[in-house]
Amino acid sequence: MDIFKCKYITHENEEIMGFCLNQNCQNTTQYCYKCLTTTHSDHQKDCIRFSEMNQYIHEFIQIYHQSTKQFKEISKSLQLCFEQILKIKEQDVKNLEKMIQQLQNKEYLVVKSQINIIKKMFTKEKENQIQKQIIYLNEILVTIKNMVTDLTQSSNERISDDEIKNEIKNDIKNEIKNEIKNKIKIKELQDEIQDKKEQKIIECERFFNEGQALQSLNKYEEAIECYDKAIAINPNYDVAWNSKGKLLYYSGLALHKLEIYKDAIQCFDKALNIQITPDRLKNKAYILLQLGMTLEARQLYLAALEKE
Ligand SMILES: [Zn+2]
Ligand SMILES: [Zn+2]
Asked: TM spans, by residue (predicted)?
């Protein structure tokens, strides 16, 4: 439930306590304890805890119930008034039509008893009155229509379940898309690394084979150079270490035999660190014998025999 953890940096993952109900507040509505003392500090009274929300909502429901009752009463009264008004108007029209008849029948005295109505019409007093009434009623109608618009809008402000569902769906879709993208990237990277590894292995082997070839042609110096190149690319290339070691003491290149033996021992040690084989143990034992270290040489030789 991501939305109930604070997302502000330095208090991310703090527990959300409630909602800020301040209309003018520009911060995220939900707040954690740290938000309360920082981003909402100037209107803490508007920050309502989840537990308090129930009470507020109950109060709002009360207000809605009361006002609905009042609205119904007003609507009923309005309906009654309009019914009366329409009835009277119908009656007025009937009376006027009757007057036409009375005039035709020359019942002048009867007409005279209602002459005030005609006078009012004649002076436009009645007409003006009717116009004013229509204007008033239209004003009331506009007010009521505005109320309906307001109520419709506020019900639209509520996010529907479907909207939330869609939002979550989109989030998941995007996450999956990103995951797939990341997977592709990781695969590409792995492939790249694999390619580089394979290239290195091929290069190492190439130098090693070249070394072997040079060695068979008694070109010891150049052969050692090739083994060095192979080892430089892959310091764990034990075969090259072993070959270099052997070549060092077989070749008899150096004037300073002691130095060569030391280097050869280092090469065999490198090779042995990666993999102990009887032949590598024997190689090191041979050098130790040359150096007069018979006891150590014997131990290595016995270890080699055990492994064979
Ligand atoms: Zn926070
Ligand atoms: Zn706030």
From this structure: none
DSSP 192-248: HHHHHHHHHHHHHHHHHHHHHHHHHTT-HHHHHHHHHHHHHH-TT-HHHHHHHHHHH
- Cα angle value 245/213/307 (rounded, 5°): 45
Q: Is 109 helix (H, G, I), strand (E, B) or coil?
A: helix
The tokens of 135 are what? Answer: 């204007």
Q: How far apart are the CA of 39 and the centre of ligand 2, in A?
A: 7
Q: Mark the residues whose beta carbon lies below 5 A from ion ligand 1.
A: 6, 8, 11, 32, 34-35
Query: Residue 268 in contact with residue 240, Cβ under 8 Å?
Result: no
pLDDT digits (tens, 9 = 90+) for 230-260: 999 888 888 899 888 888 877 765 545 667 7
